[in-house]
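Mods, move this if it's the wrong board.
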Amino acid sequence: MESYPVPVPSIAGADLLDHGGLETGDGGFGAIVLVHGLMGRGRTWGRQIPWLRRYGHVFTFDSANHRGAESVDPGDISTERFVADLAEILTWIDRGPAVLIGHSMGGLHSWCAAAEFEELVTALVVEDMAPDFRGRSTGAWTPWFESWPDQFENMQAAVDMFGDVAGRYFYEAFDDGRLHGSIPVWTDIADEWANRDFWKQWEAVAAPALLLEAEYSVTPPGQMERMADRPGTTYLRADGAGHLVHDDAPGVFRGAVEAFLSGLPR
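Not the wrong board. Structure tokens:
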């Protein structure tokens, strides 16, 4: 069955897309919601959606401050705001507890939602994200951010700057080569993580979880393995992969996620 994204009414300001898939009565999960990372976008999950639809009804959305340069709202960029948005989306979908698959920032928001709204989440996949980035500010990245052009002429221009995997990913997130948000706001979102940790939220998660860490991870060493020291949690390191595991090592990502989902009760 081909993917056919269907827009649904704006929830929490997000353009939620319904990609179809198995219903609960067909043996699928109530919903599988893909939560993108910082500077990402829902449509960057396009290569994962077709096979995930075999396991449930798949949804994607753009998080706040990732919906276009004209939609930037720096008023509230706290993790709590993003988590509240995600909970509102899950409540609107209303297909029972959902499987959340979150990359990087999306992984953080997913486990925080699972901790606060246990009834909305049945399982988690967390891709290359850890609870404690304190002391790791983004200040050193500012000169690199400032070197970005206002618009990338084409995907090759993005690949030339970011490399094959990240270049394709970012260009897919951009609006015709233009940034889909504000670098200063994105920086402020990440800087929140330099001043607090989220171990308490992780330890409050009751749902089973799969943790996927890149060999060339952005996370502080050892934290994701430590996260796995709780019942119902599986940890896997994707050898040779960078931060975008799902695109850099798609076979490893798919194999791990399919094995995890197949072992869960429907």
